[in-house]
Automatic annotation (TrEMBL):
InterPro entries: SAM_domain_containing (IPR053752), SAMP2 (IPR053833), SAMP2_halobacteria (IPR053834). It comes from the Archaea. This is Ubiquitin-like small modifier protein 2.
Amino acid sequence: MGITVELVGEGSQEVEADADSYGDLLAPFDVSKHEVSIFVDGQPVPEDEPIDTTVEHVRVLRLIKGG
């Protein structure tokens, strides 16, 4: 079973649920955990928090965009 990780405005990807923390879910994306906020059910979660086994969808909002 995987978790759908949505990088807001940039697409989403199914990530295997064997990750330990929410920050580990960022691996398929070209982002640093220091430049995003991670949301579960509309609430921010720390990137080092263990993943709740009932979570199926995570939204990631990029705070810094290069340009």
